[in-house]
Amino acid sequence: MVQYVVTGMSCAACVSRVEKAVGKVPGVETCSVSLLTNSMGVEGTASSQDIIKAVEDAGYGAALKGDTADSAKTVDEAALEDHETPVLKRRLVSSLGFLAVLMYFSMGHMMWGWPLPAFFEGNHVAMGILQMLLAAIIMIINQKFFINGMKGILHRSPNMDTLVAMGSGVSFLWSVYALFAMTDAQVHMDADRVMELMHEFYFESAAMILTLITVGKMLEARSKGRTTDALKGLMKLAPKTAVIERNGGEVTVSIDQVRKGDVFLVRPGENIPVDGIVLEGHSAVNESALTGESIPVDKETGDPVSAATTNQSGFLRCEATRVGEDTTLSQIIQMVSDAAATKAPIAKIADRVSGVFVPIVISIAAATIIIWLIAGQAPGFALARGISVLVISCPCALGLATPVAIMVGNGVGAKNGILFKTAVSLEETGKVQIVALDKTGTITRGEPEVTDLIPAEGTEEEELLKLAFVLEKKSEHPLAKAIIRYGEEKKLIAEEVSDFKALPGNGLSAVWNGAGVYGGNERFISTKAVVSDEMKKAAERLAEEGKTPLFFSRNGILSGIIAVADIIKEDSPQAIKELQNMGIRVVMLTGDNERTAGAIGKQAGVDEVIAGVLPDGKETVIRGLMKKGKVAMVGDGINDAPALTRADMGIAIGAGTDVAIDAADVVLMKSRLSDVSGAIRLSRATLRNIHENLFWAFFYNIIGIPLAAGIWIPLFGLKLNPMFGAAAMSLSSFCVVSNALRLNLFSVHSTEKDRPLRKQVDDLHAALSSIRKTTLSDETAELEEKALSDDAMLQKRVIHIRGMMCEHCERSVKEILESFPQVVEATASHVEERAVVLVNGELDEEAIRKAIEEEEYELISFE
């Protein structure tokens, strides 16, 4: 995606015009414009010159990000800096100064009798001329409304500025006409006519409209600036300089002069300048800026460090591995920037409305004036109603409803180590119904650890561990590494062994202190020593718990069992429970056998375990799950990339590989599974905030436009002064942005709103289970009765099938089974994971198995 800075946009209608103009350029595949950040993301083969020309032809300005004059800062800093508020503040102060004088003469004297200089006493024409000059000055100060509004008309793309300019301009021109008419009346000594025309002055309305809209624009710009506070804070953490080793000495250089391979030094209290690997030293590093994790992480030789993190205690000497745009910090900033430049699907509703909104409002204003004139009202009254319609209408609120919430949501995610790559991923993550978790590295820690030591009778625990440690020391097997690591933690010294042999699929053998020592599985050790029934039962119990029992013997005598397992992360069961409380079905994918997978799945508390999944088979499993609902795949390895891409939403654990992160839609900077539920909560909260914003934007216009047009005057006498219409227009955008800023208070790990939803889901599941069990029992009884009544010619068979999740699945399995000529009738239950069939003749089990598995269900066995 190529990003551009777009200037001159004022509302959602502008966004729509720019997108349409760029979309027509040959070679442009997608174009997404953000009013919030004044940016545009374009994908395709079109040249930047053609794209910029299309934007300029539409009446706006454009430049490639990076071509801006602010070269002292990075592109991202310049893009996020609030340049708009200071300009608007100066305009507002100037406008308020002249408006105060204008209001004194126009309203203060007429309504409250405030004193005037003697020259103006009784000289209504002079009063009118003064008001005209003051209003003209305010219009010149706020000329941007008129310039942009006129550009919009010339390019046949009217926008919010067009409405404001028309409202203020018509008020001013009508007042000028009234002033000339008053001059004529005063020449002819028509005092009544002069007093009548005094009430036709709308100079103060023309000026007040512009000033109030500027107030709204400034509040909006200020609030919009706050939506990027999270990113600004992150960028401020990045050091501007680094201390590197050059020519045997230490040199302080600008951060952009650091190159890959340079050795840099970080002292306590300093921020790490670029990503690197620790060459020397030991320290605690605070990574909260990137991951949101407040507890410092210990770093030593060989550990990676990231830019913008803080070295808290020791001295570190590191080698730069990623610099410039490649650092983790830069990638986070780029991800959030890209997300802001993309458009959420829900935003298209507002875009479609905004595209026709301004022309419709102008038409309503014109119709309002005509209708009131036909009704016999004075031209001034009719114009006031039309002007009110123009200035109260606000396409800005519609245009900001989605992007401000998306930007704030992304900022909150970034602060908590949750990165959404696009606005689409932020909107869609909250809609997932099934979460598929890769077992290794996601639910578990990803590396085996020693969990149990069970010495045989006559052997001490320490003796068993030492035997295993010296034997496994020469092995490269992952399970051996777990025992070696455990032995080193216990400060064991590895003694030398001789005649070491690794027997693939069986175990190890060696000679230690003159004795033959062996280690391996039960089958292998049973050939070397006697394994008691008690030890066999212990091994069976360990296997049922998902652990791998390793047997060890010495001189033909069993020394004991050491159990090794890839243990579950501490937060995994709680994280899975949180997902379930949110009404989400959790599925675990693993290549382990059924027994091991089932044990781990039970400990983790998942709803379903799919075992025996080969690395290249995950994508197929995800495709099958997608038939049952919206699926999010959570993984960390290279072999997870196809599944992450295939799923409706791919979520990569941050400690995973770059390939997995590239393939994912959401990246979790921490390796904490609880951030999955956090990402879903944040997505739901953001979508809820967008719905609130859109409701307010539509509701405001639906209520405001009829009120401004004077529909309620005949019934209730309610009419709206154009000045109050302008105030309402200003507040509408401010309210939408302020509502979006409430997301900053949202806690992604708060479970307060999870449980009520889960209770509803649990009640529904319980009701369905009860119904299905009753129904299945009745149907089974019917089938048995039918089998008996047919002189035992029909045979009842039970087929165990896994993967059914609802009544649709049951219906699908029933249809598959009844398509076989031997099957007279069939019923299926997803609750009991089985189907009951009445068979007339021999059942073709292989053909049934194939048919069932083609529909992505798993046939376990026949009875």
Your description of this structure?
The protein is α+β, with helices and mostly antiparallel strands and 863 residues long. The chain has 32 helices and 30 strands. The strands form 6 sheets. A 7-stranded mixed beta sheet has the order 14-26-25-24-15-22-23, with helices on both faces. Strands 6-5-7-13-8-11 form a 6-stranded antiparallel beta sheet, with no helix packed on it. Strands 16-21-20-19-18-17 form a 6-stranded antiparallel beta sheet.
Mass-distribution shape: elongated
Q: How many helical stretches?
A: 32
Give the N-to-C terminal Cα separation: 57 Å
Number of strands: 30
Tell me the strand percentage band: 15-25%
Helix content: 40-55%
Q: Could you tell me the mean pLDDT?
A: 80
Largest sheet: 7 strands, mixed
Derived from helix and strand composition plus strand pairing, the structural class reads alpha+beta
Order of neighbouring strands in the sheet with most strands: 14-26-25-24-15-22-23
Low-confidence stretches: 68-76, 771-777, 783-792
The value of Rg in angstroms is: 37 Å
Gist of the model:
52% of the residues lie in helices and 19% in strands. It is an alpha+beta fold and 863 residues long.
In terms of topology, how is this protein built?
Layout: E1 2-7, H1 12-23, E2 28-34, E3 39-44, H2 48-57, E4 61-64, H3 75-80, H4 84-112, H5 124-141, H6 143-154, H7 160-187, H8 191-198, H9 203-226, H10 229-237, E5 241-246, E6 249-254, E7 263-266, E8 275-281, E9 283-286, H11 288-291, E10 297-299, E11 304-305, E12 310-311, E13 316-322, H12 328-341, H13 347-374, H14 379-392, H15 395-415, E14 418-420, H16 423-428, E15 434-438, H17 439-443, E16 449-455, H18 461-472, H19 478-489, E17 498-503, E18 507-512, E19 515-520, H20 522-525, H21 533-544, E20 548-554, E21 557-565, H22 572-581, E22 585-589, H23 594-604, E23 608-610, H24 618-625, E24 631-635, H25 641-646, E25 649-653, H26 658-663, E26 666-668, H27 674-709, H28 713-716, H29 722-741, H30 754-789, E27 795-802, H31 807-818, E28 823-829, E29 834-839, H32 845-854, E30 858-862
Parallel strand pairs: 15-22, 15-24, 22-23, 24-25, 25-26
Antiparallel strand pairs: 1-3, 1-4, 2-3, 5-6, 5-7, 7-13, 8-11, 8-13, 9-10, 9-12, 14-26, 16-21, 17-18, 18-19, 19-20, 20-21, 27-29, 27-30, 28-29
Helix pairs in contact: 1-13, 4-5, 4-9, 5-7, 5-9, 6-7, 7-8, 7-9, 7-14, 9-29, 10-15, 12-15, 13-14, 13-15, 14-27, 14-29, 15-27, 15-29, 18-19, 22-27, 27-29
